[in-house]
Amino acid sequence: MTAAAQSARAPEYEVKAAFLYNFAKFVEWPSASLAPSFRICVLGRDPFGVALSNIVQSKSISGRPIVRVQLQSPAEVRLCHVLFISQSDPEALKQVLERTRGLPVLTVGESADFLRLGGSINFVLEQDRVRFEINLESAERHHLKLSSKLLAVARVVNVGGGAN
Amino acid sequence: MRSFRDSSIGSKLTFLIMATSSSALLLACLAVGAYDMLDLRRSMASDLHVIAAIVGENSTAALTFNDANAARDVLSALRSEPHVRSACIFTRDGRQFARYARLPSDPDLCPLLRPEGSYFTSDRLLQFHTISLAGESLGLVFIDSDLQELASRRNRYLAIVAAVLAGNGREALALWQTQKFDLLFMDVQMPELDGFAATAEIRRREQPAGDHLPIVAMTAHALKGDRERCLAAGMDGYISKPVKFELVQQEIERLCGAPAPLSTSSWTPEKALARVDGDLDLLRKVTSVFLDEYPNTMQHLRAALQQTDLQAMRELIHMLQGELSYFALEPAMAQLRLLQQKVHEGDPQAAGPSLQRLQDELDSARPRLLQLLEVQHEGAGRRG
């Protein structure tokens, strides 16, 4: 895992790692997507380092162990429940998100265009604090039910049907 | 009481009906009130528990994603609960996360953490509730609710009780007008027309004829000033609740002259004899010594009272108690206990009349003690 080696150890990513896991408590996946383990995937550079490993080792989702998967190619996205994409290049992002289309995958990113390009949750920094915005329509297209409590703590952005 | 015994069956019936119905009404009222208050407390606690649970549930995401603003939004929904004074959300490590106060100036926000549960104080209901998500504890919500509803309900019941009692005060007055009594025990806690007012009214009405009905106050306050207030109101005595039968008996004896029947009629020489396991010789010795010495002891007591030497009084009373216990003379023992109580309360002024009553009691018991000596002689004669 070369990506992990060069990962930033900033608290920001500890918070983001915790959030990746916590989103799962407020999101409902379709029953068909249930697997023996709950998979959190990272595509591209992995900025989390041990922060995500710690969570994966110590927590579970509805009694299922959490597995962290480092994706080697966008083709593997159907394995994931949560997919974190560190990529910020719009063209590359668009391709990856296209691959997730219709799949029960919660896509999480951290770039300005992420929601507009069809992502579901995007991390933003507000006064050095990690917050997130949600594209509710995108989440619905992925057959995910987001809890109203999650929406209450997020900035909800509906970008329209542009990135179908 | 003779006048009651001699009054017509009709008046007795009226009296009994009045007494039983008003006390039954009062008891029912108190019982219903007490039950209702308990019930209300329970339901208030369970309501607040539900509110706390809802607040906790709605703030799980705020705590999870460390969003204090969202938690404040959740708490501000409590504005629709008029009884909630303030509320706080704490993180799992006890840090204050968000808070709400109905009045921004409210000073006592967010107390120290306590274990989950409902806590009643005199005027507040505090609720602590654990916030958890998927079996994981996230923090704690605290809600502080006033007990205005409880207080207003209680006041309503007190008003009903007052109305019943006021009825009693008037009834007492009406009863006095139609009957002749030897003695009246007056409950001073009768709102509207309380015992003081009723006494004053009786004193005013009996003045033209020069009558004086002995009135003994019954009061729940065992305060010193209360006794003076009763006497100042024209009452002749004072008994504090809970009412002890022997004190009632004592007041009857004191104010009506005749010894109360129960206490004396039950006394027999055999009772005294039983105290010494039938040892006649011992009883004779004790009796004659006591008859010789008690006037002396009483004199010492009076002297100690004059010098307000309470310690000496305590010792003398203790000595008398030991001696008197041989004779099973309950009225004298009761009087002695009363005196002891007055000394114990450090109230020498009240001890004076008590001491006199003890003296009277002992003097009136003297013939009985002499009788004891005679019994003994007979017994000794039979034996010898």
3D architecture notes:
The complex is a heterodimer of chains A (164) and B (384). Helices cover 29% and strands 26% of the residues of chain A. Chain A is built from six helices and ten strands. Chain A has helices at residues 2-5, 11-23, 50-58, 90-100, 136-141, 148-152, and strands at 27-28, 38-43, 60-61, 64-71, 82-85, 106-109, 121-126, 129-134, 145-146, 155-156. Chain A starts with a helix and ends in an 8-residue tail after the last strand. Residues 1-10 of chain A have low confidence and may be disordered. In chain B, strands 2-1-5-4-3 form a five-stranded antiparallel β-sheet. In chain B, strands 6-7-8 form a three-stranded parallel β-sheet, with helices on both faces. In chain B, β1 (84-91) and β2 (96-101) form a beta hairpin. Mean pLDDT of chain B is 77; it is low at 258-265 and 376-384. Among the domains of chain B are: 33-152, Beta-Lactamase (2-Layer Sandwich); 266-383, Up-down Bundle (Four Helix Bundle (Hemerythrin (Met), subunit A)). Chain B contains 14 helices and eight strands. With 384 residues, chain B is of the alpha/beta class. Chain B starts with a helix and ends with a helix. Chain A binds chain B through residues 15, 19, 22, 25-26, 61-62, 129, 131-132, 147, 149-150, 152-153, and chain B through 58, 60-62, 64-67, 70, 73-74, 133-134.
